[in-house]
Amino acid sequence: MKKSILSLLALALALSTTAQPYDVTFTGLLDEMSDPSSHAKWPVNEYVCRQSSSYSRESVTPATAAEDSRFRPESGRDWGKGWFANYDFDNYIREETINGQTEYVMHEDNGPGVILGFWTAYGGYCDGEGGDYIFYIDGAEEPAIKMQNKELVGGTGLVGYPFSYVAPAKSDNLTWLGHNLVLPIPYGKSCKITFRPYNPAMTARTHGHYYQIIYRSYKPGVSVESFDETMMKKYSKQIYACGMKLIGDKSLQTDAVSKAGGSTLAPGAKKTITLKGEKCISSLSVQLGASDISAALTGTILKIRFDGEQTVECPVGNFYGIGSRQLSNCTFYVRTSPDGMMTAYWVMPFAKKAEVTLENRSAADVELKVFQTTSRPCVWEPDRSMHFYAWYNETRNLDGSYKYDYNYVTISGKGRYVADGLTVFTYYPEDSDHDWWGEGDEKIFVDGEDFPSHFGTGTEDYYRYAYCRPQPFSFPSISQPIGDGNKDPGLSVNNRYRLLDDIPFEKSFAFFMEIWHPFYDTMDYAPATFWYAFPGCKFCNTTTQREQGR
């Protein structure tokens, strides 16, 4: 009897200490997605982030960029050449015949991973005829997901808002929309995604089909709970809770408040909030007043030092994703309003000390109506905890007379890339019909890659809308507070905040965006970039005046 009791106790102890059946679960991904502190530490289950897309397969090597940048067609539209080729649609990994029907393979990954985001645009023909997106998970012959393209991505066939939506939500052309799905779809062994058109007479070059699929590949040995059709019902409460966190109230009433507002900064003056101890900043709020609010937003610089190292330097308008206008920007990480109130919810840990400074570099006084942080105790783990970084570039009168890759940022160190915003001002004559500055693709190189693991299909596609739509929009992970400069002279601001699709890097990270204006016009071009990294990270922008054609 005594042995039986001891055996039962031993079994109970073994069961209580046994690890969970999966290292990565569907509900764990939802928790990570809706936790603003999730990026601030190096991941326990390490992964790489990559992208499958319909980019032009003519783009093979950056070594041809100098020659390809000067290509001009003798007549007709400029579709580019080589490294800058712009046929970024209807390109697939291969064609397969399954059960007598043609399917076009869009994505394939062998090993444990997660589909993090699915963006697509149809251009008209594919939208009218339609087809199915099909997910084959872990080598199964039967699909885990098979659904009409518009219903799955951007519709409500699998899940609704805020996980599935179109951008902009309203448009003067209902075909030219960016369709988005950001619900995580995990797999333990493999994932293949195909497109099967309803009309079998369609060929690979008649779909008008653009797509980008971003995904994680975990390191071997990480066990992942694979998606199946039962999960949506089984975890409906968790999905709903995650969605509410993404769009809900972000008041941090229990965190300590530090204020330095209620004063005026003369030109050249500074105001600093100093925090000491092992803590993390949980929110940072600013509201400015000035006779020229545009000059104040671009001329008031946010600078932050963590543990003696300056990691942030950015104009407040660009830090909060609104450029030079007081606008609404309602996302998961940043929220602003037309009255000028701006709050960021980036979690920023530090071991000993943080110094948050506003510096007035404009030519006139700036009133600090609000300048405050909230903070809370936070354990600093030297092998996992990282500082928050933000960097800003601006090029006035950017030469668009030929194509090249503009360097958003180049980073040396170890960290996680989490967001960026692009402010553009276009000057071309209103009657010139010289619209749309953003034909260029993003090209992201991680840890010294020869070819980018993220190669896009257009600047507006990277920011998850489509066809240079000018309508404003805000969703948890993307926003366009203003798009006046997309079709006419004026200002445009695009933002992308990465919820699960952050990009870890072990040694280096380099982000380039093609300058690709089909009418070769000039513009003011200003990207801001955001990431976490271990102390000692080095960064710069390598675009030079020579590369800008001057």
Q: Based on CA inertia axes, which overall geometry fits?
A: globular
Poorly predicted runs are: 8-19, 544-550
The amount of beta strand, in percent, is 35-45%
Total count of strands: 36
Write down the overall mean pLDDT. Answer: 91
Sheet with the most strands, sense and barrel status: 8 strands, antiparallel
Q: Helix/strand/pairing class, anyone?
A: mainly beta
C-alpha-based Rg, rounded: 24 Å
Tally the helices. 10
Query: Ends: how far apart?
Result: 89 Å
Helix fraction, binned, reads 10-25%
How do the strands and helices of this protein lay out in sequence?
Elements: H1 2-17, H2 26-33, E1 47-53, H3 65-68, E2 94-98, E3 101-110, E4 113-121, H4 125-129, E5 131-137, E6 145-148, H5 149-152, E7 164-167, E8 178-181, E9 185-187, E10 190-197, E11 210-218, H6 231-234, H7 236-247, E12 256-259, E13 263-265, E14 270-276, E15 279-289, H8 293-299, E16 300-306, E17 309-315, H9 316-319, E18 329-330, E19 334-336, E20 342-344, E21 348-350, E22 353-360, E23 366-377, E24 387-392, E25 395-398, E26 404-412, E27 415-426, E28 442-446, E29 454-455, H10 459-462, E30 473-474, E31 478-483, E32 490-497, E33 503-505, E34 508-515, E35 523-533, E36 538-540
Antiparallel strand pairs: 1-11, 2-3, 3-10, 4-8, 4-9, 4-11, 5-6, 5-10, 7-8, 12-23, 13-23, 14-22, 15-20, 15-21, 15-23, 16-17, 16-22, 18-19, 19-20, 24-35, 25-35, 26-34, 26-36, 27-32, 27-33, 27-35, 28-29, 28-34, 30-31, 31-32
Helix pairs in contact: 2-7
